[in-house]
Amino acid sequence: MPFTNDFSHAPGNPASYDLKSQLPPQRATTIVCTPARSPLVGGERGAAHFTFTETIMQVQPYVFFNGRCEEALTYYGKHLGAEVTFMMRFKDAPPDPQNPPRAGLEDKIMHANVKLGASQWMASDGHCDPDAPPMSGFSLSLTVEDPASAQQYFNALADGGQVLMPWGATFWSKGFGMTVDRFGLTWMVTLPPQV
């Protein structure tokens, strides 16, 4: 994160400038800096001490399977080694009279956390809308260092789905393929360039 020691634009005493209000609280970080023009801090010239928070971000896919979440997660567990680390069904959620679940959704998955390799992602049955459009505009990219495993995962994902790009060598990788799986989720399976 860039940090400047130019306090010429800071309102009032630079030593009391509230950097905490500039960032959402996540983790406290103390910065010690010596401004270009040393302000008087505690009656003496010297370094100014600032404590502010640093935002830690992580992007995780949240996939809605429109009623087929449990089937999908079972399939990914069997063929990719995915592990469901948390799952809540609609019937397990606290009752909300303002937003009750639609009849028939009680046993559907409201939320699940999934671990696949070193990645975490989330899944749900969503609203189970029969008129929902197919998933589009994104894909999950699965990078596998072992060529035999990568092709095996690709074949498992392609089984019952639609292959968009058959498994094979490309100019950027010795193994790459794209497929829409049987649940409508698009996957890109690839070997890293160094393999």
UniProtKB/TrEMBL annotation:
Residues 1-21 are annotated as: Disordered. Residues 59-189 form the PhnB-like domain. Pfam families: 3-dmu-9_3-mt. InterPro entries: Glyas_Bleomycin-R_OHBP_Dase, PhnB-like. This is PhnB protein. It comes from Paraburkholderia terricola. The lineage of its organism: Bacteria, Pseudomonadati, Pseudomonadota, Betaproteobacteria, Burkholderiales.
